[in-house]
Amino acid sequence: MDGKAPELDGGFFVVSLPYNQEMWIGWALGALLFVFGFFYSPFWGFFGLMLLFLNTPHPFAQELEEFKTKAGNQEYLRKYAEERGFSFERFWLPESLDGLKNNAGEWHFPTPSKYVWNWKKPYDADPNNSILFEHPFMVGAPRPPLFTLRAVYFTLGLIMLQFWGAALIVKYHIETFFSLFAFLIDFTSSQALGIFFGIILIIAFLYYVIYFLASLSKSITNMQMVDMQTSLVRSVAVGEAELIGQARPGPHGALKIFVDDNPEMTCEDVVCYEWVREDFPAQGDIPDWAQRNLFFYILGKTNKLLDSLYQNLFNIVEPHSHESARQSGGVPFILHDGSGGIRVEPSMFERIHYQVPLNVWDIGTTRWTLYGLRLGDPLYIHGEVASRTNSELAEEKLDGMLGNSILKVIGNVDPPGQELIMIQGTEYSILAYSYSLIETLYLPVLYLGVFFMLGIV
C-alpha cells in the first residue's frame, strides 16, 4: 500500500492534543472551567475535567484517521483493483469501504469481495499476493502507551479534592451513615434491617470484584494480542500462532440459519453462529412463589444479577438475563489474509467471541438474538496450528504441495498461561483505540484508595 503505515507503539507516555477546531474549543473551555473550579467551585472543576476527557483524542486517533483517509481514496482503490484485473465495484467488499463508521466486528479498511476470492483454489494467494490492508503487516499492531493525558486529569482531580478537603467531608458522611445504620437497628430491635443492608453491601462489593476481574481478563487477552507476533498464512508453522484474515468458504460452503427452526428468522452465508432465546415475564406479573414470600423473590433477582455478572466474565457472548434456550454451530471454513488460506475448525474452539448481533427479533414477550461470523467478515484467531489427516486431505483432493493447505487451526486445548480464542474482528479494530490497564483500572483504584485513606487519617 502507498504511504507510510502509522506508528502505533505508544511507549511510556504520550501527549495527545485536539486536532480539529471543535475539539480545541471543547478542550479550551474544559481547561478554563477546571482552573476556575479549582479555586472557586469543585463542581465546575469536575465539569471542566469531564470536558477535557471528552475532547482529548486517543494518542493514535489523528494518524489513524489520516491513514483511513488514504486507504479509502477512491482513485487509489480503483487503480489498485484494475492492476489486478478487476473493476472497482467487483474487487472491493461494499460494506468495508466506509470504515469510519464500522464497529469492532467489521472492516475498517477496504477488503476484497467474493468476486476476487479463488473459489476453486481457496488456499492460494490473492492476485499479486496482496495482503489485506487491515493485517498487522500493513497497518501495524496497536500498542497503547502506559500513560496519556487521562492520567494527568486523574491526578488533577485528586489534587482538587484534597484542596477542597473533600476527603474530610466523605469521612463525615460515612460516620453519619454508620451512626444512622446503628440507630435503625437499635430502634427496630431487629437484625433484619442489618441483614438487608449487609446484602446490599455484599452485592456491591461482588459487583466491583467481578468487574475488576472482567477488566483484568480482557486486558490480559489484549496484551496477548499485542505481545504475540501475527503470522502470515503462507508461512505459518505448526504450533501456537496468531492469525488475522477474512472468513471465506471452505469445502462445506456456508450455512443458512433458521433461528429456533423458524422460517421467518433466517440468515445466510454464516460459517459459525450462536443464537439465544429469552422469554420475558409479562409486565407486572409476579410468580406465585414470590407473592407468598417477597424475601425469596428478592433473592431470586439477586441470583439473576450475579449470574449475569458471572456470564459476563466467563462466557463467550454477552449475558442474557431471561435466557431460555441457546444453540451454536458452524462448518469448517477458510481464513485468508491475502497471502494464502488455512482451514479453521470452529467446532474445536472453546472460546468464540462475537461482536454486534447479526439480528434481533422481538415478538411479544420473547426475544431471539443471533450472533455469527459470515463470509467476508474479519477474524482474529489465537489458536493452535495442527497438521491435517490424510483422510481430510483426500476429501478435498489436495496434493500437499502448498504448505498452508495441509494445516488447520483449532483451539480446544489452552497452552500454559494462554487462552486460545477466535474473535470476530481484527487486531486493529479491537485494540486501535484502547488504553493501558494501568491507566484505566489500576491508577483510578490507587487514587480512590489514597483519597479515602487521607479522609480517614
Characterization of this structure:
The structure is a single chain. The protein is of the alpha+beta class. 42% of the residues lie in helices and 18% in strands. It is built from 14 helices and twelve strands. It has helices at 21-40, 42-55, 61-71, 74-83, 88-91, 136-139, 149-163, 166-188, 192-227, 288-292, 294-314, 390-395, 427-431, 437-456; strands spanning 239-248, 255-258, 266-279, 323-330, 333-336, 341-349, 352-353, 359-363, 366-374, 378-387, 407-411, 421-424. The strands form two sheets. Strands 1-5-6-11-10 form a five-stranded mixed beta barrel. Strand 5 (333-336) and strand 6 (341-349) form a beta hairpin. Helix 1 (21-40) runs antiparallel to helix 2, helix 7 packs parallel to helix 14 and helix 8 (166-188) crosses helix 14. It is globular, with a radius of gyration of 27 Å. The N and C termini lie far apart (60 Å). The mean pLDDT is 80.
Question: What's the topology here?
Answer:
Layout (H helix, E strand, L loop, with lengths): L20 H20 L1 H14 L5 H11 L2 H10 L4 H4 L44 H4 L9 H15 L2 H23 L3 H36 L11 E10 L6 E4 L7 E14 L8 H5 L1 H21 L8 E8 L2 E4 L4 E9 L2 E2 L5 E5 L2 E9 L3 E10 L2 H6 L11 E5 L9 E4 L2 H5 L5 H20 L1
Parallel strand pairs: 6-11, 7-12
Antiparallel strand pairs: 1-5, 1-10, 2-3, 3-4, 3-9, 5-6, 8-9, 10-11, 10-12
Helix pairs in contact: 1-2, 2-7, 7-14, 8-14, 9-11
